Amino acid sequence: MASQNDYNHIYKEVKGAFHRGKMRYVDGNLAFRDADKSNAISQWNVEEDITKAVWSRCSQGYELRLYMNNDEIHSFSNFQKADYDKLKDHFPEMIKKDHGVRGWNFGELDVKGKELVFTDPKEDDIFEIPLYNVSNCTQNKNEMAIEFHANDKASINLMEIRFHTISEVNARTMTDDILEHANVLQARGQAIANFNDLSFQIPRGRYGMKLFDKFMDIRGKSHDYKIAYRVVLQLKYGSFTTPKFGFLGKAVIQGPNSPRFQNSPPAVRVRPRDEKF
């Protein structure tokens, strides 16, 4: 007789969005039916595809995190405490993890495989970040800014998180480690267009901007931004006058409001001599 267990009302986390669905285990195979994605089914063989399973408390019940042999990480939540024993039968070597909840905001930062792990001084993991969610990582002296891919299906997007390290060398080493595994938008070939020394209103400052086939790269003295065209809703261009400079043009990149730009879309001031813009 086939061994089968069903887990209802389970949520799969996809770049900050929680997809509701149903999980089923049958004779060494695990499947998840995504009700929020046209009932798409993902299937894995427990022995061949999954290298590690981790059980922990989370904001929605309990979480089962699966590490795949192709370096993918899948997170499922809303399990009940009673599900632990049944899942333990499917994953005999499943790890039971207790996260650090002491409220400390300092500790050790380390790249472990495809995850960025922040550990408190008691060596309890505070949180883990799958690096395929990371779109960019920049360094300014001993500070690192980690940026995340936007997901329009998520009700709330975490766009950036910053860490302060003990030295610039440490920050540079950690930044390089993160970028090696992150899902960074890569510039391939030459830029379609290149604009130097543009005056930005949002974010404030002077930036250079390069347009590639899939994204625009905005670079300043201290910070860089990459904006994928798929998240841009509209590009507006208008004009206005000022007593000091006379006619000025203004281009606004209209996309989803983002904390990265103080909840406002990026805006560029363009002078008449910048006709190519």
The CA-CA distance between the termini, in Å, is 69 Å
Unreliable runs:
none
N to C succession of SSEs: EEEEHEEEHEEEEEEEHEEEEEEE
**CATH topology (level 3) name of the largest domain:** PH-domain like
- Structurally, how many domains make up the residues? 3
Strand order within the widest beta sheet: 4-3-2-1-7-6-5-8
Q: Helix proportion of residues, in percent?
A: under 10%
Topology overview:
Blueprint: E1 4-14, E2 17-26, E3 29-34, E4 40-45, H1 46-49, E5 50-57, E6 62-68, E7 73-79, H2 83-90, E8 95-97, E9 108-112, E10 115-119, E11 125-130, E12 134-140, E13 143-148, E14 160-164, H3 168-181, E15 193-202, E16 205-211, E17 215-219, E18 224-228, E19 234-242, E20 246-254, E21 267-270
Parallel strand pairs: 5-8
Antiparallel strand pairs: 1-2, 1-7, 2-3, 3-4, 5-6, 6-7, 9-10, 10-11, 12-13, 13-14, 15-16, 15-21, 16-17, 17-18, 19-20, 20-21
How would you characterize this protein structure?
It is a single chain. This protein is mainly beta and 277 residues long. The protein has three domains: 4-97, Pleckstrin-homology domain (PH domain)/Phosphotyrosine-binding domain (PTB) (PH-domain like); 108-181, Structure-specific recognition protein (SSRP1) (PH-domain like, Roll), CATH 2.30.29; 193-270, PH-domain like (Roll). 9% of the residues lie in helices and 51% in strands. An eight-stranded mixed sheet has the order 4-3-2-1-7-6-5-8. β19 and β20 (246-254) form a beta hairpin. The longest helix has 14 residues, at 168-181. The chain is globular, with a radius of gyration of 23 Å. The N and C termini lie far apart (69 Å). The model has no long low-confidence stretch (mean pLDDT 83).
